[in-house]
């Protein structure tokens, strides 16, 4: 994992001092609310429905145990003892005091954390695959490139006031996309060209929100060393030509659409020709410098623990289910990747208490080289667990509520904080998630249904990624009342697509029944091998519509 | 007239007036005996009349394209870039392009909605003179120009990103 050097530490200290100064001037009335707004947003501070909300950056999801412990302490000392894992793999506090934020940032800086650019119209936290470095299907470890992007984008003087927020994601897996790169402003897919050289396929202009779009490819192969000069060219074209007259048309996807992907690519190419040989071009030494922080942990030479696990599975059905659903295979024999689900029924998706954060820290130390990862699906991953310790780990997870074996099933819901917490929301999202989780509490039935992405957003801003849910739920406001619009057929993976709206929206209490009917249509129509998405793609919207509105 | 802040935070007297773009059908009126900044495209349109004059500079609005001056930027005694609202970030790109691509080395002045907390970004993008919005405390400019002693990326102030400085 990346470790700060003296330069990083100095920048972090200076940032805290700067925000302390800005906060003092704001409280003294020297900065208007409008002037302070982008400054506090770029330090992660929102003012939401009930209180300020502080979004702490977790660069590409990576956390060390000491950082988890510090987060726990901060939630206890400055907040109500819990935090929320967001769909950008950040960690959010819901109740800090404005005056305390500089102190919180200083505490974070001590453990090499910050809240830089977690909000505002700037380049946000770069996200990637939470299994990075640990799974087999990887072209190269994406994290050194994520860190290179993090440093380049941090306080970039030209790009602090873009037309709108700007999100970059990197995926390194050939066959799966756990980073949803096609719905990002820039999605970078690591690839090798025919000569075996490393590079990126560049998608631009994907995104959710009001105008959901799957990002088209503007360059099939960008050599790895050209990463930053090309990114700088894209963002410069966007900064200069993106719309600023209408907030809802200001994302880069609107510009890409207006110019056409080819037209946009030409502009980027022309700009890039001017800067591609500048000192911002990476060198092999620079890449190696960043790679040295992401070397393999000290793995032991082990055999797969297949027999031991088989007998444990045979004796313990719940362990068996958990192993099947929440544990993924690892590139090293004898190791496994474990996902801790923060989706236990009765708990808002993604919420963790201070105690749970400390427990995760302990588990990371004991079982996974002191590291954990936050995922955009709002779970936590321990990426390097010995197979012969899985049973012990599972026993520890059960009482913490982290072993719900529902990963990738219907109740592994992605959900924004919604109207309970967020000022932007039209409707509550957490109670809808809970009602659905209550309705579908039979794990065997969930397994029979197979993988289904159910995503819920409380408003058009789509923090719950509803457009790319196989089933998407969007909170809407109708004459002051909360209603829910349902869409089907979205996907955030390699086969990315935007869901289609089913029809008129529903009242909150109708939602579990609506989901039940949708599921029944799938069960009636599916062939043996088909997932929910496969069936939907084959039979289309009509049969679902018919049953739900019958 | 308000004083101008230099890149090091020192203050100096402003001798330039900004001449607004004339309304449709009206012609440009340049005040007598006063150094004036006029819209860049009008300077180009009146090139025969304005070229070489030490008392005529230009200003760009945030939607203007610095490319229109291209090879002629260096002929100007002063270029100003207007930030119509401080959240409009196009001026930063204009600054960098004038300096890094079109080789402009004269005074590059930020005008308009220029506030304290954006000064260091502007400086990094090639601005070396700032007319702070009148209600802001000019004595705090020096501090705000220097919040950071280290930067990660290359810009106009340094073409060496931190990753290259680290290596050397």
UniProtKB/TrEMBL annotation, chain A:
It comes from the Bacteria. Residues 119-274, 409-548 form the Nitrite/sulphite reductase 4Fe-4S domain. InterPro entries: NIR_SIR_4Fe-4S, NiRdtase/SiRdtase_haem-b_fer, Nit/Sulf_reduc_fer-like_dom_sf, NO2/SO3_Rdtase_4Fe4S_dom, NO2/SO3_Rdtase_4Fe4S_sf. The keyword Glycoprotein does not apply. The keyword Protein transport does not apply. Keywords: 4Fe-4S, Heme, Iron, Iron-sulfur, Metal-binding, Oxidoreductase. GO terms for molecular function: 4 iron, 4 sulfur cluster binding; heme binding; metal ion binding; oxidoreductase activity. Residues 53-111, 347-397 form the Nitrite/Sulfite reductase ferredoxin-like domain. This is Sulfite reductase. It comes from Marinobacter fuscus. The lineage of its organism: Bacteria, Pseudomonadati, Pseudomonadota, Gammaproteobacteria, Pseudomonadales.
Automatic annotation (TrEMBL), chain B:
InterPro entries: UCP030820. This is Oxidoreductase.
């Amino acid at each position: 994992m990346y470790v700060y050097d003296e330069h990083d530490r100095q920048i972090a200290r200076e940032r805290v001092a700067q925000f302390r100064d800005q906060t003092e001037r704001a409280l003294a009335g020297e900065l208007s609310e409008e002037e302070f707004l982008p400054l506090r947003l770029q330090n992660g501070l929102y003012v939401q429905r009930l209180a300020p909300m502080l979004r702490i950056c977790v660069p590409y999801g990576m956390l060390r145990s000491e950082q988890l412990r510090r987060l726990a302490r901060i939630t206890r000392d400055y907040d109500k003892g819990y935090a929320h894992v967001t769909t950008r793999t950040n960690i959010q506090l819901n109740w800090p005091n404005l005056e305390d934020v500089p102190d919180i940032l200083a505490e974070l800086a001590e453990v090499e954390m910050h809240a830089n650019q977690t909000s505002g119209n700037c380049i946000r936290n770069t996200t990637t695959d939470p299994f990075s470095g640990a799974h087999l299907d990887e072209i190269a470890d994406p994290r050194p490139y994520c860190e290179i992007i993090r440093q380049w984008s941090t306080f970039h003087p030209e790009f602090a006031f873009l037309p709108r927020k700007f999100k970059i994601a990197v995926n390194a897996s050939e066959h799966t996309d756990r980073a949803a790169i096609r719905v990002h402003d820039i999605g970078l897919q690591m690839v090798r060209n025919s000569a075996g050289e490393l590079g990126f396929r560049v998608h631009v202009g994907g995104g959710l929100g009001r105008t959901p779009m799957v990002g088209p490819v503007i360059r099939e192969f960008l050599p790895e060393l050209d990463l930053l000069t090309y990114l700088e060219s894209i963002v410069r074209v966007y900064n200069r030509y993106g719309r600023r007259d209408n907030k809802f048309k200001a994302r880069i996807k609107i510009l890409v659409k207006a110019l056409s992907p080819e037209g946009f690519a030409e502009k980027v190419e022309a700009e890039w020709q001017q800067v591609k040989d500048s000192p911002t071009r990476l060198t092999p030494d620079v890449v190696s410098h960043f790679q040295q922080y992401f070397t393999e942990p000290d793995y032991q030479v082990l055999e797969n623990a297949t027999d031991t696990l088989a007998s444990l599975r045979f004796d313990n059905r719940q362990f068996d289910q958990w192993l099947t659903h929440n544990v993924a295979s690892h590139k090293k024999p004898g190791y496994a990747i474990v996902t801790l689900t923060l989706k236990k029924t009765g708990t808002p998706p993604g919420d963790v208490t201070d105690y749970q954060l400390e427990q995760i820290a302990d588990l990371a130390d004991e079982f996974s080289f002191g590291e954990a990862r936050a995922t955009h699906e709002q779970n936590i991953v321990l990426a390097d667990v010995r197979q012969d310790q899985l049973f012990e780990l599972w026993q520890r997870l059960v009482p913490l509520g982290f072993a719900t074996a529902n990963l990738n099933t219907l109740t592994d819901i992605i959900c924004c904080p919604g109207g309970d917490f967020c000022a932007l929301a039209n409707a509550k999202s957490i109670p809808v998630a809970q009602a659905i989780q209550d309705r579908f509490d039979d794990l065997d039935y969930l397994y029979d249904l197979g993988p289904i992405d159910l995503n819920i957003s409380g408003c058009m801003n789509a923090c719950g990624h509803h457009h790319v849910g196989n089933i998407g739920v969007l909170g809407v406001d109708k004459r002051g009342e909360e209603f829910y619009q349902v869409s089907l057929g979205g996907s955030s993976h390699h086969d990315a697509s935007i869901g289609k709206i089913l029809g008129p929206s529903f009242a909150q209490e109708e939602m579990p029944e609506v989901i039940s009917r949708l599921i029944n249509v799938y069960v009636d129509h599916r062939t043996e091998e088909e997932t929910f998405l496969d069936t939907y793609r084959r039979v289309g919207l009509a049969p679902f519509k018919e049953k739900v509105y019958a | 007239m308000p004083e101008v802040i230099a890149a090091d935070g020192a203050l100096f007297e402003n001798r330039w007036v900004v001449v607004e773009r004339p309304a449709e059908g009206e012609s440009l009126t340049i005040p007598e005996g006063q150094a004036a900044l006029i819209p860049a495209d009008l300077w180009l349109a009146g090139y025969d009349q304005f070229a070489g004059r030490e008392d005529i500079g230009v200003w760009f609005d945030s939607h203007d394209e610095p490319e229109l001056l291209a090879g002629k930027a260096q002929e100007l005694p002063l270029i100003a870039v207007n930030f119509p609202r401080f959240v409009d970030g196009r001026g930063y790109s204009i600054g960098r392009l004038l300096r890094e691509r079109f080789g402009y080395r004269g005074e590059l002045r930020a005008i308009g909605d220029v506030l304290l907390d954006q000064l260091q970004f502007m400086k990094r993008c090639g601005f070396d003179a700032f007319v702070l919005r009148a209600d802001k405390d000019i004595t705090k400019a020096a501090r705000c120009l220097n919040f950071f002693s280290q930067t990660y990326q290359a810009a106009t102030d340094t073409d060496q990103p931190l990753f290259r400085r680290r290596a050397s």
